[in-house]
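Hi,

I'm pasting everything inline rather than attaching a file, because the server keeps stripping attachments. The sequence lines come first, and each chain or strand is labelled.
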Amino acid sequence: MSKSMLSESGVEYYLGTLCEKSDDGFQFAYSCALTREKALEVVFEAYQAFSAELPTPGEGDSELVGILKKIWQIIQTKDEFKADKSENKVFSLLFASLSLNERAVLSLTDFFGFQPEVVEQVLSLPISEIEALLSKSRHSLVNSKF
Amino acid sequence: MSNLDKEQTFYANIDKIVNGEISAHLKGSLDELLKDPSYADKVEVYRKARGKLQNAVEGQFLNEDETLKIRGFAQDMSDISSKESDEIDRVGTENKIKRFIRGAVLYGALLFLGYKIVASFIPEEVVKFNPLESFTYETVELEDAMEERIDFKSNSFEDVREFFNNFPNPNIKNVQLFEPKGWTLEGASVIDYDVAVIAATTFTKIIKGQTDTVVEEVEEYDENGELLAPKTIETQVPSKDILVHYSFFSEENRFPQFDPTVVGSFSYYPFASDKYNMIMWNKDKIYNVLVGRLTPQDMAAYVSGN
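And the predicted assembly:
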């Protein structure tokens, strides 16, 4: 759908509801991608997709869950993110030893405060795997020197 | 069924240990681990590290150009500036309304106690500040809209300390932090009543066995982008109790005068309203007030460590 075909209500929904949560989406993307450049690439791609699709986030989802789910889908299509390229010292210290899935689970649980059932919706991973990833990432969090 | 060993289960549920939400069953299975002092240390390290993680992530956000680019995907740039200035005006008006309401409550408290009413919103004579009424109001507001009312959201005492250190007011900079065991630090605020500047730290605790219903209205659109009838989603969330510590400097004692309650070396003044209990304790001209639903005796026990 081209920009010119968007209805006024659709534009209002995009600008008012989805764009208001763009910082949240960026924070999740950055904690996964580790560099600002890569995080922006993912966020821009996600919001371009939203502006074209004008989606509702899905049955029963909050807007934020829908945004994070889209960002995660786009992250999956990217090449591996290099931890040592991060310009953020805390991210390098904390996340360097974690896999992408571990970073995502830690961010969604200990930053966004989501329960495992919601993390499952965002990442499309079974809860048993989420618990294992969370355990490992928190072990790193406790033992990291940052 | 979980395939995690005991140590993995510990780390997977360490947040519940910090928040006091761990179930009896889980506590039983981790009993041996939890008795080990090194694991108690890990809980504290996790609590602080989680606070640092939250600050590190929360400090990242899109700049103005990046935000405009995102907004521009759905709208020509020429339309954005007029909508932005409308938004700035709206926020400015909202802030004016909030300041008006704060002032109105303060003046209403004075009327209730039979003090003189100030006719103007910019009074020429000094307004008397009633901390008992004001802290009741502030705590109600915190309980109703914590996300909006807390200036600095953090679970880390170190970061809250740094937040207060950034204020030039020496009474805010050097405020003595209070750390009630078993309560979760939610964040800190500085409240300016003109006649007194208050440092406030807010704590919550899960009330076991109780839930609140959060109702959220969701907007949905059809394939043509037309707004459908709104849908509401109800979510059950754990109920939380609240405890707020207020601290401020005052040349005069603004509290009712009576003999304090003394427990060991700790002296305090208990108060009660229909909503909350309070205790006040002071050293020289620094006044501290705890507000919440605990009994004054329990509050005093937290403060004195008895």
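Strands of chain B lie at 152-153, 184-192, 197-218, 231-249, 261-263, 266-272, 277-283, 286-292.

If the labels don't parse on your end, tell me and I'll reformat.
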